[in-house]
Amino acid sequence: MTARTRPSGEARGGAGPDVDAALPVVVAACAVANLRRAWRQALEGRYAVHEAPDLAALERALVARKTVLVLLDIGLPDLAGVTGLKRIQPLRPEARAILLTAEPDEQEGIAALKAGARGYCDRGIDAALLLKAVGVVLEGEVWVGRKLIPHLLDELASAREQERANLASDDSRLERVTPRERQIVDLLSAGASNKDIAKRLNVTERTVKAHLTAIFRKLGISGRLQLALFALEHSRRVRQSDEDWTKVQLTSGRRRGE
Predict the structure, then answer these.
(1) Which burial class, exposed, middle or buried, applies to 53 when counting CB atoms under 10 A from its CB (0-12, 13-18, 19+)?
(2) 100: in domain
(3) Hey, which of 46, 99, 199, 256 would disulfide with 117, CB 3.0 to 4.6 Å?
(4) Any idea what the CATH number is for the domain that residue 72 is in?
(5) 25-29 and 67-73: which strand pairing?
(6) What is the CB neighbour count within 10 angstroms for residue 87?
(7) Can you give the pLDDT at residue 151?
(8) Full domain range(s) for residue 99
């Protein structure tokens, strides 16, 4: 049997092929071999850790392996810092990322989270804390150092105020429609046809069409698709705003970071 070879510098951690196959895959991307080894050793036994010494190796790993999380050194050559995260995200959109850096900085941490990272910490993080950070991020929470939490809360408060302003604008438009018209908007955004809406509301299709004409005029919308997208986006904003705020408040009440 011919053994599969890897490009120079790439390695796979874990206790063996059979064990690794059953473990969640984490890619450790860092040009410093000692750091990659330390990250792998911190996680081995719980995760199948694949090392990537450069951007090309990281991209290959994301394409080839069903990765759940990337440990990404911001100093990785050719990554271009925090902004480079957006370059690799399309390769494995479902994978979460923890960005690690030689010198943690509050502004860089905020930028990392805005770019889509779910964690930000010192690349020399203690092994036990790294294992905990990975678990926290995979549970859907955010891992940051304690010093970053007040800045993160300030940023989210500002973003929430802007979201509220956007929601208020949408709400003021929705206030123009009657309760019956709002029912029709909700049913249409759920995919109901005019015939379905008429049956649900016990009215004629002609009445539904008349209501839709009035709704389009009041909301400044030109068609059914635009109306459905407007309603769905409004619902998403309401839900996401509440979820994000609750999640960060819960996270800030616990010990998150080194």
Answers:
(1) buried
(2) yes
(3) 99
(4) 3.40.50.2300
(5) parallel
(6) 14
(7) 65
(8) 11-144
Query: End-to-end distance of the chain based on CA atoms, in angstroms?
Result: 46
Band of residue 7 on the pLDDT scale cut at 50, 70, 90: very low
What's the whole-model pTM score? 0.58
**How many whole angstroms separate alpha carbon 249 and alpha carbon 82?**
25
Query: How many residues can be counted in the chain?
Result: 258
Given this model, what pLDDT does residue 90 score? 92
Report the alpha-carbon distance of residue 209 to residue 198 in Å, rounded.
9
Q: What is the 3-state secondary structure (H, E, C) of the chain?
A: CCCCCCCCCCEECCCCHHHHHCCCEEEEECCCHHHHHHHHHHHECCEEEEEECCHHHHHHHHHHCCEEEEEEECCCCCCCHHHHHHHHHHHCCCCEEEEEECCCCHHHHHHHHHCCCCEEEECCCCHHHHHHHHHHHHCCCCEECHHHHHHHHHHHHHHHHHHHHHHHHHHHHHCCCCHHHHHHHHHHHCCCCHHHHHHHHCCCHHHHHHHHHHHHHHHCCCCHHHHHHHHHHHHHHHHHHHHHHHHHHHHHCCCCCC
The answer to whether residues 47 and 137 belong to one domain is yes
**Amino acid identity of 73?**
D
Q: Which one-letter amino acid corresponds to residue 247?
A: K
Domain end marker among 126, 144, 162: 144
The count of domains in the chain is 2
